[in-house]
Amino acid sequence: MTSARWRSLDGSGLDHVTLAIDAERVVARGVVIGEQKGVRYGVYYRVDLDPLWRVREVALGAADGRGLHLLSDGQGHWATGQGAPLPQFDGCFDVDLSATPFTNTPPIRRNAWKTGERAELRMVYVPFDSFEPFVDGQIYTCLEPGRRFLYEAADGSFTSELTIDEHGLVVDYPSLFAREP
Could you say which residues of the chain have pLDDT below 70? Predict the structure, then answer.
């Protein structure tokens, strides 16, 4: 088991995640408290991944009773927790949960990166103020394998240099999150 804790640099939130990794799967369980667009939230999340760090299931529950359950086949196809197809997410291999830097880990861990290598990804982005997922384009560029990555929003609205640890977990996410000791 590995765990990490981050605080949001705007002072509005805290995230704690625990990873259980074995030969058959990776399970991330986390709790986030914070605020987005004036809406306070408390969210429990579970992200199940296969051994290659491909998302297979996402379950979210909020303190106010809201929830979201998504399934993925690991090949870029998504469905509701009841199995109804979600074709709007075709081609998305990852999920990005808005208030946790944990979801930067799967795309980093899944690839054997070389310096300068770049990957453009389509993500299922879930904002915690609404729980209404949508497709978001993101770009990762390896600056130093196993240590530093440039993260960019595909629309050019945001960039940040991420420092990661030996588990692929974010240590420093300038302007958004800082890892707690």
Answer: none
* CA-CA-CA-CA dihedral for 74, 62, 37, 168, to nearest 10: -40
Residue 20 pairs in a beta bridge with 27
High-pLDDT (> 70) share of the chain, %: 100
pLDDT (tens digit per residue) in 65-91:
999 999 999 999 999 999 999 999 999
CA distance 116 to 149: 9
Q: What is the pLDDT of residue 172?
A: 95
Q: How many residues does the chain have?
A: 181
Which residue from 98, 40, 92, 43 is spatially nearest to 71, judged by alpha carbons? Answer: 92
Neighbours of 20 (CB within 10 A): 13
Contact 106, 53 (CB under 8 A): yes
Residue 1, classed as helix, strand or coil, is: coil
Q: How many CB atoms lie within 10 A of CB 9?
A: 13
Has this prediction a pTM greater than 0.85?
yes
Q: What is the pLDDT of residue 6?
A: 97
Burial class of residue 175, CB neighbours in 10 A (0-12, 13-18, 19+)? exposed
Mark 75-85 as b/e (b = at least 16 C-beta within 10 Å).
Answer: eebbbeeeeee
The DSSP bridge partners found for residue 38 are none
